[in-house]
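Issue 218. Parser rejects a valid record. Input:
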Amino acid sequence: MITVSRHLLLCATPSKALCCPDPASGAASWETLKRLVRELGLEDPTRPGGIVLRSKADCLRICAEGPILLIWPEGVVYGGVSPERIERILKEHVLAGRPIEAWILRTYQLAGDPPA
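Output the parser choked on:
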């Protein structure tokens, strides 16, 4: 069984470009995210703590300051996720557990597992 530690959802190329008006920058952010997740070994099933999934989302219902990155399960939403910012987010937040407060648009409280 594969354990998942985090899921990164990037709204970078929405069909209605309300959050990311420049499709080229959104596509570049997506390509950078895919490359760095591979290069940093985050997809390795033997990785302690579990793998990191990444998905391209059409809309995360933020509609401002895109590209938008939602990190699950923390519920942290980053705005302005340019290719230049992605490496720092992965290294500081995903790997080191230190969110970058200055880039956070909002934080959602996500429902966890029901009590036992």
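Fixed in the parser; the record now loads. The chain has a mean pLDDT of 88.
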